[in-house]
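Morning F.,

Quick status update on the modeling queue. The single chain you submitted on Monday has been processed. Sequence for confirmation:
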Amino acid sequence: MSLLTDLINLNLSDTTQKIIAEYIWIGGSGMDLRSKARTLSGPVSDPSKLPKWNYDGSSTGQAPGEDSEVILYPQAIFKDPFRRGNNILVICDAYTPAGEPIPTNKRAGAAKIFSHPNVVAEVPWYGLEQEYTLLKKDVHWPLGWPTGGFPGPQGPYYCGIGADKAFGRDIVDSHYKACLYAGVNISGINGEVMPGQWEFQVGPSVGISAGDELWVARYILERITEIAGVVVSFDPKPIPGDWNGAGCHTNYSTKSMRNPGGYEIIKKAIDKLGLRHKEHIAAYGEGNERRLTGRHETADINTFLWGVANRGASIRVGRDTEKEGKGYFEDRRPASNMDPYVVTSMIAETTILL
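Structure tokens below.
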């Protein structure tokens, strides 16, 4: 008699050419990921060859009950690390039946910016540092913390090892490998300053692909924590008090910045970002005012400043970039719950198109 694990791990290619495609989209809150699966007649590697699909938008807060149909447009394909074989994960965005992007579809607006000839010519690179916190499912308290109590103060946990310092490494490493399997350009992981908090990095990725890859990496993480019976939080300040918040630092460069003389282009771009500080902050994630306090490696939310190797700045430039006269910079303002389509495209718009 087969066990449940045997059936879950069945290799479909032994008996059929058919595959399973998991269609993934962003729900009405802007952070809740949704997905459902369908059978396809054979392997597909080009998203334009995939059929559109629909879902009940009234059940995700994205359409009224009397006109609830929302259409999914497949945009990016990744290998499925859960079903494996030729099965796929499909990042989609959402449209009305008339073909208009629904209000929560931020990818469509980003795609317009990234398709602008001036932006295409600059080949914008992004490296996204996604921080998150693992919580116990029943009490929503960080993994490794005494229930209702607190661990020792911050200091030993950042990149720490040992059962009293690193909590949830099995989840983190499973996610790392699953992302590599899926084809996500994940470039690393590390334990963070607050115990129970971790980070993974996606990139360097070009243009719209940075958003696609971060969203599918978030999806894979939520699926793994589902299996592990743990909750993942992207709240920018999950625990009040003298504990670090969670951000999504966004590293950025253009072709001009990466070429000789690029440091001057970087400084001009930072000046442009400073002029639109309030607009960027408004788009950089909910609850960010609880994180950007001027403490715990942040600049105050109402202050824009930049510096070389300064982790208390809004924008940090690395020593290597200053020394070589070219390279990239890091926008440290985005919260962990930011929408990467919004943040990456807004940085490109401000620095290239304005």
